[in-house]
Amino acid sequence: MQLKLPFQTLLFILFSCANQYAQYSSEDWEERDTWMNVEEIFEMAQVKEGMHVADVGCHEGYLTLHLSKKVADQGKVYAVDVEQYRLDDLKEHLEERKVNNVEVILGDYNNPKLPSGTLDVIFVIDTYHEIDEYMKVLGHIKKALKPEGRLLMLEKLKTQKKGKSREEQARGHTLASKFVKEELKDAGFTIIKQIDDFGDWQENNEKQMWILVAEVK
Q1: Which run of H or E residues covers position 93?
Q2: How far apart are alpha carbons 214 and 217 in whole angstroms?
Q3: Tens-of-pLDDT digits for all 217 residues of the chain?
Q4: Cα first-last separation, the chain
Q5: 167 to 108, 109, 136, 161, 175: CA distances (angstroms)
C-alpha cells in the first residue's frame, strides 16, 4: 500500500530539512555572522595569532575560515569532518580564497584523527550531540591538546527537549550542558567557563545556545 502525504505535510518536511542544513551552507554564512558572535567565542577560547587550532565538525568551513584569519599565516587550522562531500566543498572554498594554513582531515565517528599534543584550542560547535562514542572522542581530543590547551563546546538546547534524557535530546539534535559538564570532568577536563545563554541559534528563541570552555587538567 502506497502512503500518500498531504501536500502541506510534504512541504513542511522539505522546508525542515532545508532549514536544518542551511546554517552550514556558505550561502548563509553572512547571515550567520549576525547571530553568532565569533569574535567573542575566540576571546573565550583565547585564540591568538600563530596558534594551532582545530574545528571538529567543520562542515563546509564557516568557523574554519574565521579561524584561519585569526591565527594568520604563522598559525594552522585542522578542519575535521566525517563526511567527504563537506570536506570537498571546504577545499573549494580554501582554493577560491587562496587559504594555505588549513589542513583538511576526514575523521572517523569515534576519532577526529588530530595530531597528538600539538593543539592550543579545539572547537566543537553544534556537533557533540551527534557523537555516539563521545567519551572516546573526548579522549582523543585530550591527547591532541597541549598542556593547558582549551576545548570550547557550543551547543543549542531546544525548548521542547529541556528536561529529557540525554538519549532523547541527542536524537532531537540538541543537548543540555549538564550532561556535557559531567562527561568533560570524567574525561579529565576542568571547566573554566560556562555561559548558559549565548543567544539564539538562527535567532530562534526555542534554540538557546550555551558554551562550555574546558582545560586539560
Answers
A1: helix 84-97
A2: 9
A3: 444 555 454 433 443 444 444 445 566 889 999 999 999 999 999 999 999 999 999 999 999 999 999 999 999 999 999 999 999 999 999 999 999 999 999 999 999 999 999 999 999 999 999 999 999 999 999 999 999 999 999 999 999 999 999 999 999 999 999 999 999 999 999 999 999 999 999 999 999 999 999 999 7
A4: 59
A5: 21, 17, 17, 11, 9
Say how far residue 55 (Cα) sits from the centre of its chain: 7
- In the numeric block, which cell numbers belong to residue 111? 576519532
**Cα–Cα distance between 102 and 43 in angstroms, integer?**
20
Find the radius of gyration of the CA atoms of the chain.
18
* 70 phi/psi in degrees, rounded to 5: -70, -45
Helix 177-186 / helix 134-144 crossing angle, nearest 10 deg: 60
Q: Label the pairing between strands 102-106 and 207-216.
A: unpaired
Q: Are 165 and 158 in contact (CB under 8 A)?
A: no
Polymer length in residues for the chain: 217
Bridge partner list, 76? 52
